[in-house]
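Dear Dr. H.,

I hope your travels went smoothly. While you were away I took the liberty of generating a structure for the chain from your last submission, since the lab meeting agenda had it listed for discussion. I wanted you to have the full record in hand beforehand rather than looking at slides cold. The sequence, exactly as received, is reproduced here:
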Amino acid sequence: MTETRKTPTIQDVARFAKVSTATVSRALSSPDRVSEGTRARISEAIRVTGYTLNQAARSLRQRTAKTILVALPDIRNSFFSSILDAVEREATNRGYGVLVANLFLARTPAQRLQDYMLSNRADGLLLLDGSLDPGTLQALVRAPNSVPLVVACEEIPNSGFHTVLTDNVVAAERATRHLIDLGHRHIAHLLGPDHNVVARDRMAGYANALNRAGLAMRQQWLFRGNFDIERGFAAAAHFMSLSERPTAVFAANDESAIGFLSGLRQYGILCPRDISLVGFDDLGVAAHYAPPLTTMRQPRELIGRMAAEALIDILEDDDHQRAPLRIVLNSELIVRESTAHVPMRGQD
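The corresponding predicted structure, in token form, is as follows:
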């Protein structure tokens, strides 16, 4: 005899969550009237009992805020300004507002995102930080939370998240190749932060260019950095301590490149007379520094617009079920005055 399994009811959810059926009903219809802790218990009860899971999950997060949340690692970094501007313009054109979460201020960034999303303040999440724990993010995007998520700028490998980014490996290889084409054979790399996926990709591109040119990568020519001016400035002291100095440097971003140039000046080292330098990002200041900085221009406005467009398209799709989107945009080499042919004394 085949046993017929009883269809879960709202009473089953209430019993599991240890609340009244009225509270469950209120959580489904008016989530803002129920505390976060109670909503979390009801979400878990829905998951365990299997009570009309898809419909209930959507109801728990009444996506009527018409707002997207943009979360970034540090709002002080000028790199994000153009991206945020493009996101807001696209969102406004589509009738959405924008909230910004500065994850630099949070002890537990993932928990802060959960608080935002599960309190119904935003309908979807645009994440500009690839350092968050993938498991925590997966918990947000899966039922019963079912938060629409797009990751931009920094990829989270093997996550299956919708992603919009630039070709960091290819672009870094192109930047290093530019120095090689100018005759440089002793080329250093000013690194990004440890364990940062973008920094790793740019390091990989640098290594690819050296390898294809038959050049050795020397450990003493890998200068520690952190995508900021301060660590770039400190790298100048390391450069000066070397018994054999490189004739060119590829920096993982413009801020560290500018810090490095500033640090070198205190030792009387001038660019491009004594050293050539390539940055990455093409920040607004790059064209106006002395000398103007050769750099890889990321299409930041396009990243922001396409990421916001993708997220809102997902929000306006009734079932939110789409194959993972992965858009890779091309960066452009912008040649300015910080790079020149290698001085005769620096050639092999």
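Two observations you may find useful: The longest strand covers residues 67-72. The chain has a mean pLDDT of 87.

With kind regards,
E. W.
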